[in-house]
Every structure is written in C-alpha cells, then in structure tokens.
Amino acid sequence: DTGVSQDPRHKITKRGQNVTFRCDPISEHNRLYWYRQTLGQGPEFLTYFQNEAQLEKSRLLSDRFSAERPKGSFSTLEIQRTEQGDSAMYLCASSKSRSMNTEAFFGQGTRLTVV
Amino acid sequence: AQTVTQSQPEMSVQEAETVTLSCTYDTSESDYYLFWYKQPPSRQMILVIRQEAYKQQNATENRFSVNFQKAAKSFSLKISDSQLGDAAMYFCAYARSNDYKLSFGAGTTVTVRA
C-alpha cells in the first residue's frame, strides 16, 4: 500500500460544470476526511466518514457539494455547477481508529481550477 | 469554534542553524491534541510531531521539538540543525480529544539557506 491516493491530481473545468474527485484511503483505515485548501491558507475541514457513514459536514459544504463512501472503501467528492470560488486544492486524509494517537495520512490532493 | 493562529507567514534559517515557529490557539477544552504538519512543494501533508494536552512533557522527534505552554495556549516548533529538506510550509493544527477534525493555522513558509 503506497498511502492515500487521489485522482485526478489536477482538474480544469468551466464554470457551471460538474466535477468529481476520488480518494482511495489506506486499506485498513476506517476514517476518511475531506479538506479544502486555498492558496496560502491552511486546510479547512469539509466532511468526515467513519466506514461508509458520513458523520459530519462542515457549513463550508454547500448544497452543490456531495460526498460518498460506498462500502467504506474509496470516497468521491462531487461539486455541481462549479463556481470560480470553488478553485482550491481538495485534500483527502485517512486514519485507522478513533484514537488521536493514530496519525492521519494525507493524499497529494486534487487541484481544481474553475475558469 | 477552535482557532489556530500562526503569526509568522515566513521564516528563513541558515543551514545547520535553529528556527522556532510560533503557534497560538484558542479553546475552552481541557483535553485536546496539537500537531505540526509539514507540506513540501509536492503538497502532501506529513505529520512532524504531536502533543497530547494532558502530557506536561514536551514532545520531541529527532531534530524537531515543541514548547507547549498550556496556560498560555502556545505551541511552538523548534527545528534544530536545519537541513535543506526542511524547506516547506509548516502548519500548526488542533483537534479535540473526542473529535476527529483538524483545525489548521494559516501556515509558516520555512526557507533554508545553504
């Protein structure tokens, strides 16, 4: 296992189009997180899964955003009707258990540019 | 909501020297965790060091150490014997003990001069 994998690494889309990103966590990790990072800022929490259950969504996640984690394995993050303000790096992270002694491993991210 | 503040947008250090990055946080919780993450230009976030709030002893990881001042809500990172590979953006982060969400500061860019 080579770690958390995200696809695509880069995405350029026209305003109003829909985009979908994929995250493959480390195989034995049951927790999966999505964060958004704009240039020069720290990541901001978007949503979290424990296995297949989505347990929390940030207020940053508008109705145009939806995330899924079918079967508790990979996760997808979809943005509908993209806006220029959605341009950012979308980071996925996973961890193994409830304990914060377990490290959260991050993927390399998907950079979205909305033109 | 918890906030994490990093007041130094950029820091520069000579190779082999020491640099200290500042971080303050705001919380009403008594039990929580603090982290320093490194994000090199390749963009993958890597955990550098972790501190449990209930532990008085400051965490150390090789050349990286922290100064945790719970009463002052301060959590600084010291990088000793700086190496060229230490050049990156460093983020301070907070998480409650019963939580799973990381709250990040805005980051400090560290450059290492050869």
Question: Can you tag this structure with a few keywords?
Answer:
heterodimer; A: 115 residues; mainly beta; 7-stranded mixed beta sheet; 4-stranded antiparallel beta sheet; B: 114 residues; globular
- Helix percentage range of chain B: under 10%
Largest interface summary: A-B, 24 and 22 residues
Q: What is the count of β-strands of chain B?
A: 12
Radius of gyration of chain B: 14 Å
> Measured on Cα atoms, how large is the radius of gyration of chain A?
13 Å
Q: Give the overall pLDDT of chain A as a whole number.
A: 91
Mean pLDDT of chain B: 93
Overall spatial form of chain A: globular
Name the assembly state: heterodimer
Taking the sheet with the most strands of chain B, its summary is:
6 strands, mixed
Helix content of chain A: under 10%
Strand content of chain A: over 45%
Structural class of chain B: mainly beta
Number of helices of chain B: 0
H/E element sequence of chain A:
EEEEEEEEEEE
Element string of chain B (H = helix, E = strand): EEEEEEEEEEEE
| Beta strands of chain A, count | 11
Quick synopsis:
The complex is a heterodimer of chains A (115) and B (114). Chain A is mainly beta. Chain A has strands spanning 5-7, 10-13, 19-24, 31-37, 44-50, 53-57, 65-68, 75-79, 88-95, 105-106, 110-114.
Describe it for me?
The complex is a heterodimer of chains A (115) and B (114). In chain A, strand 7 and strand 8 form a beta hairpin. In chain A, 0% of the residues lie in helices and 49% in strands. Chain A is an all-beta fold and 115 residues long. In chain A, the strands form two sheets. In chain A, strands 2, 4, 5, 6, 9, 10 and 11 form a seven-stranded mixed beta sheet that branches. In chain A, strands 1-3-8-7 form a four-stranded antiparallel beta sheet, with no helix packed on it. Helices cover 0% and strands 53% of the residues of chain B. In chain B, strands 2, 5, 6, 10, 11 and 12 form a six-stranded mixed beta sheet that branches. A four-stranded antiparallel beta sheet of chain B has the order 3-9-8-7, with no helix packed on it. Chain B has a two-stranded antiparallel sheet with strand order 1-4. The mean pLDDT of chain B is 93. Chain B is globular, with a radius of gyration of 14 Å. Chain B has 114 residues and is an all-beta fold. In chain B, strand 8 and strand 9 form a beta hairpin. Chains A and B meet through strand 4, strand 5 and strand 9 of A and strand 6, strand 10 and strand 11 of B.
